[in-house]
Amino acid sequence: MNQNTPQRRRERIDRGIKVRCQGIYSLMSWREMTYITAPRAALIAGLLALPLVMPGMYWQRVISIVCIYALLAVGFDFLAHFVGLVSLGGAFFVGVGGYLAAILNTAWALPPIATIPAATVIGATLCTLLLLPCLPLRGVYFAIVTLMYPLFLARVIEALDILGGTDGIMGIDGFGGRWTEQYAVIGMLLIVLFAVRRLVNTDIGLVLRGVKDNDQAIRASGMNVTRYKALAVFITAAMGCMSGAFLVHIYMWSGISQFALDFSILPIAATVIGGGGTLAGPVIGCLILVPVSELLRDFGTLRIVFYALILVAFIVFRSEGIMVYAQRKYHQFERWTQV
Amino acid sequence: MTQAPLLQVKELSKTFGGIRALEKVSFDVHEGEILGIIGPNGSGKTTIVNGITGFIRLTSGQVLFRGRDIAGKPAHKIADMGVTRTFQIMRPYYSLPAYKNLVIPLFSPRARRTGGWRGGGRLGDRHTVGIDILEEIGFERDSHVPYKATATLPTGYLKRLELARCLALKPEIIICDEVFSGLSMSEIASMVPLIERLQMDGITLIMIEHRLRELFKVASRVMVLNFGRKLMEGPPAEVMADARVKEAYFGSREVREVMDHA
Questions:
Q1: What value, to the nearest 5°, has the Cα angle with vertex A203 and ends A199 and A206?
Q2: Is residue A219, in this structure, part of any structural domain at all?
Q3: Nearest residue of B to residue A210, measured between CA atoms
Q4: Within its chain, how far is the Cα of B244 from the centroid?
Q5: Quick check: is A189 in a domain?
Q6: Chain B neighbors of A228, CB-CB under 8 A
Q7: Looking at the domain assignment, is residue B49 inside a domain?
Q8: Global ipTM
């Protein structure tokens, strides 16, 4: 050891205000209450204000797509970090939800306000039933099966020329106004985000987290692991199918591109960038990734190269994700101490 | 005994490939007693636990709990009937604090039906009941221990947490897979009265142990396993004096003499 250069390391300490905010004492002053509510309010207000500050219809459409991806990303984060199932099924859920909404709208002339909830519930039930056989297994099987279904369904529609074949289903009702469309999607995203954050902290949410931590202990506690996994898959599939239904009504068209793997991969990338296990992180990840991928359109085919570079840079330099980093900076300060 | 045994194990066999882990092991457990199961390493003790509680599929044999055959039922159904177990290698939920570990078993169908430990699950919220159980089992309530992340707890507390998970279910039987192993002498000393208290609460215990001295203190009957077969069964004093048991643990006299001369 060199005596002349003292060893130093960075020390992280919780901010005083963070400690004061734990427990009932947080209600003692406006400062503490602001400290707790400000980040949450900022996200809600920011999302609600986005359509107002965005110039032009093109960027407003981008916002809707951001929210659709964000729904998928929150679902992925929930399933991966709170239940321990890595799902590549974004495309599967979007495809099933989208086609269901399209069928309900064209065949029975149901309005979007009815097709979206119906597609959510029916689609989630269908997806859960189709995924049920691989739920008792541990390991990568779930990821593989969720990846296989969208490829399979897209080929079936193409080969049998059902449901419009390669042309897709056209003539679907829109939302009847871009403001309705945007605030419907944003409002839904906020409700889902709030609900999932509440869910993971309830008793049943603790059971789901237990499934991730230790499924043997869940069995030893007299609970059926598969049933809880199915419940979690149902919740995630419902979010995915809902985003698919929204997508179909926004584009007023449903086709096999809804089974495209973008819907599986981008939510995962957004979760990596935003910070896994935070639920709000994936939303922030989507807010960055989707517009970036739009901006990079000018580069033509080079787009994917830049896109990949951004992702790699994030994984190398900030693998914890934006949200985790930001939370740490918000709650703790750092100082150098001598060892 | 005139009363029918609570748990009857009849000719339990389990083979792993060509290895006979258990061969026609039969024994009875009566209500309220503590049965010890001992045996050298690899004699099939943990396989018995896994077999009774449904964590492995048995090759043959019957397990009767209150006269109903539970062999072949899924593990969660058996636990739901009140036949609970601890794991030799502790399996807590490491990402949760200790008291939240107990919210999960308190949420199980059995705990909601029976009210859980001392019926507390019906009253109050599950977080408070979880802390009650932890206090009962030796976590100091007013300290920070019940609130600490499970990953930072020492082995002694994790072993207790295993028992606490069983207690949350209001069990009829707890099968303890080596709750004393890995503990210090003082930790074991505080564990023994706890076991006796569980017995007084009317819980039947099957204890698998390597720490014979402590086991013989609490057990009313001991069964000895060797190479998957039942060697003998009887009160602790009888087991301790038996020549076959000594042979299983220390090797036969002839072998020992050969070893000494080598």
A1: 80
A2: yes
A3: B93
A4: 25
A5: yes
A6: none
A7: yes
A8: 0.86
Q: Does any domain span residue B162?
A: no
Per-residue pLDDT reduced to its tens digit, B141-194: 778 888 888 888 888 888 889 889 998 888 999 999 888 888 888 888 888 888
Q: Is residue B224 part of a domain?
A: yes
Residue in B91, B99, B104 to test binding to A, most A beta-carbons within 10 Å: B104
* Residue B108, phi then psi, degrees to nearest 5: -65, 155
What distance in Å separates the CA atoms of residue A225 and residue A135, rounded to the nearest whole number? 9
* Cα–Cα distance, A177 to A183 (Å, whole number): 10
Return the minimum-mean-pLDDT range out of A4-18, A146-160, A261-275: A4-18
Q: Is residue B122 very low, low, confident or very high in pLDDT (cuts 50, 70, 90)? A: low
A222 to chain B: which residues are within 8 Å by CB?
76-77, 79-80, 84, 105, 108-111, 169
Cβ <8 Å between A220 and B165: yes
Residue with tokens 């990949």: A308
- Structural domain of residue B218, as residue ranges? 1-73+212-262
- Count CB neighbours of B97 within 10 A: 20
- Domain assignment present for A135: yes
B44 within 8 A of B224, measured Cβ to Cβ: no
- What is the SS3 assignment for A11? strand
In chain B, % of residues over pLDDT 90: 18
Mean pLDDT of A88-101: 93
- Number of separate domains in chain A: 1
CB-based contact A221 B93, cutoff 8 Å: no
Residue A136 predicted with pLDDT over 90: no
> How many domains is chain B built from?
1
Give the structural domain span for A106.
56-260
pLDDT single digits (tens) B9-27: 988 889 888 888 888 899 9
**CATH code of the domain covering residue B48:** 3.40.50.300
Domain-embedded: residue A145: yes
Tell me the HSE value of A338 on the side-chain side, using a 13 A CA sphere: 4
Between A2 and A153, the more confident residue is A153
B134 found inside a domain: no
Question: Looking at beta carbons, which residues of chain A come within 8 Å of B56?
Answer: none
A213 closest CB neighbour out of B77, B94, B108: B94
Paired tokens of B87: 């794991």
| CB within 8 Å of chain A, chain B residues 129-148 | none
- Average confidence (pLDDT) over A240-247: 94
Q: Cβ B92–A222 below 8 Å, yes or no?
A: no
